[in-house]
Specification:
By secondary structure, the protein is mainly α. It is 60% helix and 0% strand. It has 19 helices and no strands. Helix 4 crosses helix 6 and helix 17 packs antiparallel against helix 18. It comes from Melittangium boletus DSM 14713. This is HEAT repeat domain-containing protein.
């Protein structure tokens, strides 16, 4: 499973200045190459749709530019048509497009460029749209309305423009993105695209967290629920780094992890808790401990064991590990309980780990390796872990990272 916006202002959009920097340098640097490709393509008779082939020139081997589309003096009116570009030479008119396009003309003008499927063109369009939106709440809301009925390719472009614009952080824009993402009349794939934008936010308000949590744990949310869970986790990380605020997010992720009917969603929610690397209080520790005995998925129990290594009370978590190990029958879950004992309590975990190795002799060699490393004076868990002869002695880490 992996995957990895807003309203129109009343003022007429300003003409954007010609960009400076890497994007235009890249665009202009690609002209010569694409022009050469155009010459080769014309050799096969492909001159691009509805364009007159340019007359050959003497001198350097480059294609003569076709007549550039006339830039409108103002917002496109009903009688104006969008400019048409050759599929092979669309970069010829990039600078004129860049200087003359407005939010009103962007959608029509971008269509032939979008159809080229050139990754550099697509990257440019996303950045240019974000620039046109800027911090204007109204423009972001307008592009979100475009996205509601857009084709898949346009939808990705419009949402990328919104995500890259400062206006995404405006309260009305956030609420509109959330409303669209939670709109039951819309298909889940498109809802997921809206909800994915939320991961760019610096924080989520309590009411917003409640709405997203309710949706994410809904059995009918599907992939959109998974994306919502990821968004909560990523905003948590951002908010924690800026303000130290983590508990509201951890509580909601734990709720999703314990109540969702979708195993990938439960796994992701608990994995996101792990990435926060935040100490767990006694109540959270006990809730996770219960999951070690009630959770049906072996993979989810492994990530629960990892989460528990962050418990504030080291003695409490060692007791939880020991009891769970005695009743656990899955090798990989036992391996998680064994190795995360050292992560939770360091050298103090050795007696518990020794007993685990007596219960399951498959861990005898692992215990001896870890005991030897601690005896050498190493105390850091990462150094212990990477000092082992193998980080996957039992074939359990195919889908998980330590």
């Amino acid at each position: 499973m992996t995957p990895d916006a807003p309203p129109r202002s009343s003022a007429s959009p300003e003409r954007a200045p010609s960009p400076r920097g890497p994007r235009i340098a890249l665009a202009l640097g690609a002209v010569a190459l694409l022009a050469a490709v155009a010459l080769l393509t014309r050799g096969t008779g492909d001159t691009g749709p509805s364009e007159t082939p340019p007359a050959p020139t003497s001198g350097a081997a480059s294609a003569a530019p076709a007549p550039a589309p006339q830039a409108p003096a103002g917002p496109a009116g009903p009688e104006q048509k969008a400019p048409r570009f050759s599929q092979t030479t669309c970069w010829r008119d990039l600078e004129r497009f860049n200087e003359s396009v407005t939010l009103e003309t962007f959608r029509d003008w971008a269509k032939p460029l979008l159809a080229s499927r050139d990754p550099h063109v697509l990257a440019y369009l996303k950045e240019r749209l974000a620039e046109l939106i800027g911090g204007d709440e109204g423009r972001a809301l307008e592009v979100l309305e475009w996205a509601r009925e857009a084709t898949p390719a346009e939808f990705k472009l419009f949402m990328a423009g919104v995500r890259g614009a400062p206006a995404l952080l405006q309260p009305r824009v956030v609420e509109r993105v959330m409303d669209l993402g939670l709109d039951e009349k819309m298909d889940l794939g498109r809802r997921a695209g809206f909800l994915d934008s939320l991961q760019k936010l610096p924080r989520l308000e309590p009411a917003q967290l409640d709405r997203l949590t309710h949706f994410a744990k809904d059995a009918a949310s599907g992939e959109a629920g998974w994306i919502t869970t990821r968004a909560i986790g990523r905003v948590m990380k951002e908010d924690m780094e800026r303000t130290g605020n983590v508990k509201p997010y951890l509580d909601k992720l734990l709720t999703i992890g314990t109540e969702s009917q979708d195993e990938p969603v439960r796994y992701l929610a608990l994995e996101m808790e792990m990435h926060a690397d935040a100490p767990l209080d006694a109540r959270t520790t006990q809730r996770l401990a219960q999951m070690l005995t009630t959770e049906g998925s072996d993979e989810v129990r492994q990530v629960v064991a990892h989460d528990l290594s962050l418990a504030e009370d080291k003695k409490q978590v060692l007791d939880i590990y020991a009891k769970a190990f005695a009743t656990e029958r899955n090798l990989c879950v036992r391996w998680a309980l064994f190795r995360f004992s050292a992560r939770a309590a360091g050298k103090d975990a050795l007696p518990v780990m020794a007993n685990m190795a007596l219960i399951d002799p498959r861990f005898q060699a692992n215990y001896q390796d870890i005991e030897r490393l601690y005896a050498s004076g190493i105390v850091d868990y990462d150094r212990i872990w990477f000092g082992l002869p193998s980080q996957d002695p039992h074939g359990c880490l195919d889908h998980h990272d330590d």
